Amino acid sequence: DAMVIQNPRYQVTQFGKPVTLSCSQTLNHNVMYWYQQKSSQAPKLLFHYYDKDFNNEADTPDNFQSRRPNTSFCFLDIRSPGLGDAAMYLCATTQARGLGSVDEKLFFGSGTQLSVL
Amino acid sequence: GNSVTQMEGPVTLSEEAFLTINCTYTATGYPSLFWYVQYPGEGLQLLLKATKADDKGSNKGFEATYRKETTSFHLEKGSVQVSDSAVYFCARRNTGRRALTFGSGTRLQVQP
């Protein structure tokens, strides 16, 4: 059974039209991540949540926002998608063991492939 | 910076061949090192890890040794199978950081 679920598997949006990608988890982990992966490139961390604490990466564009309404769900909002935002978006979770240290294992969803027309 | 560099793919091997996928990292701090594997249509999953120098991670016949002197964490398997065909990602995590930095991935294709 899938433990980190991303919907939809494929998402098509228009240039400039806001889009939301969703991620849910059944693991009750307190850390959730969003990575962006472009073709043949390394997954790039956009941000992560430690419980409700939002942690943005310094080079993540303002066009990307995130929400975590509860432990199980995390959303990635792209306010005005550009052609350069077409990519695979990966959600992952892990459990922090206090003092900010985390378990060594990340659990990934299958990703959402975003196309921008 | 905290980067990870992998050999470019695809790597194409015949079944039962020996596999090496090279991975090097920048010598910043004392990172934990990982290999993740992504099978077609699935999410990334942890294959093996090593948390300090000279540690050897192993799983499913794969091995990798944390080499501080060469800043490397090469993935090896003595005899690959068709079912090993996947994309392999090397990754690091610095102490005190919650997130992983990934390499760009190496696609392995094993032919019968």
Structural notes for this entry:
The complex is a heterodimer of chains A (117) and B (112). Helix content of chain A is 0%, strand content 50%. Chain A is built from no helices and 11 strands. In chain A, strands 2, 4, 5, 6, 9, 10 and 11 form a 7-stranded mixed β-sheet that branches. Chain A has a 4-stranded antiparallel β-sheet with strand order 1-3-8-7, with no helix packed on it. In chain A, strand 7 and strand 8 form a beta hairpin. Chain A is globular, with a radius of gyration of 14 Å. The mean pLDDT of chain B is 92. In chain B, strands 2, 5, 6, 10, 11 and 12 form a 6-stranded mixed β-sheet that branches. Chain B has a 4-stranded antiparallel β-sheet with strand order 3-9-8-7, with no helix packed on it. Chain B has a two-stranded antiparallel sheet with strand order 1-4. By secondary structure, chain B is mostly beta strands. Chain B has no helices and 12 strands. In chain B, a hairpin with a 7-residue loop joins strand 10 and strand 11. Chain B is 0% helix and 47% strand. Chain B is globular and about 45 Å long. At the A-B interface, strand 4, strand 5, strand 9 and strand 10 of A face strand 5, strand 6 and strand 11 of B.
Shape of chain B: globular
Beta-strand content estimate of chain B: over 45%
What is the mean predicted local confidence, pLDDT of chain B?
Answer: 92
Spatial extent as radius of gyration of chain A: 14 Å
Query: Can you tell me the residue ranges of chain A where pLDDT is under 50 for at least 5 consecutive residues?
Result: none
Structural class, from secondary structure content of chain A? mainly beta
Q: What is the H-and-E element order of chain A?
A: EEEEEEEEEEE
Order of helices and strands of chain B: EEEEEEEEEEEE
Which regions of chain B are unreliable across 5 or more consecutive residues at pLDDT < 50?
none
Oligomer: heterodimer
Treating each run of at least 4 consecutive H or I residues as one helix, how many helices of chain B? 0
Tell me the overall shape of chain A: globular
Give the percentage of residues in beta strands of chain A.
over 45%
User: Gyration radius of chain B, to the nearest Å?
Assistant: 13 Å
Residues in helix, % of chain B: under 10%
Say how many strands of chain A there are. 11
